[in-house]
Design a protein that fits this description.
Elements lengths: L12 E6 L2 H12 L2 E2 L7 E5 L15 E6 L19 E4 L3 H11 L2 E2 L10 E5 L5 E5 L1
Parallel strand pairs: 1-4, 5-8
Antiparallel strand pairs: 2-3, 3-4, 6-7, 7-8
Length: 136
């Protein structure tokens, strides 16, 4: 049984490694419509969801996404290979076909491997090569 009396942490920030934090934050900011936090640069950039903040400025638990530059970045080799994905984001949309043009215009690529049997999701690569999915 879950103990409901003790305080639970809130997921505050998801950090994604990449070769250029500002570039990748710009991509996801355009796709999601989220705002770039002041002070962003090539090494670290944070996107805020509408109504969100981070740390103590985040009482409602809105999760933000940050990007950190890794000097020796290696693009993931999904679905297999020597450098697997390690994480990916699923972005919910009502209609994948209708949402796809904006994602591609922002800089995404359609991945060659599409494992969905029923069309419930489509796999893309962001500008740094991370797989992400549009799901319905």
């Amino acid at each position: 049984m879950t103990d409901t009396t003790r305080p639970r942490p809130k997921l505050d920030l998801i950090v994604i490694d990449c070769p250029d934090a500002l570039e990748l934050a710009g991509f996801y900011g355009e796709v999601l419509g989220w705002q770039l936090e002041d002070g962003a640069d090539r090494d670290w950039a944070t996107l805020q969801p509408p109504g969100g903040g981070i740390g103590p400025d985040n009482p409602d638990g809105h999760t933000a996404v940050a990007f950190q530059r890794i000097e020796d970045w290696v693009e993931p080799t999904w679905p297999g290979g020597g450098h697997p994905q390690q994480m990916h984001l699923d972005l919910a949309v009502g209609d994948i076909e209708a949402a796809e043009p904006a994602v591609l215009a922002a800089g995404a690529r359609v991945h060659e491997h599409q494992p969905s049997k029923d069309g419930g999701f489509r796999v893309y690569l962001d500008p740094a090569g991370h797989p992400f999915c549009l799901i319905r």
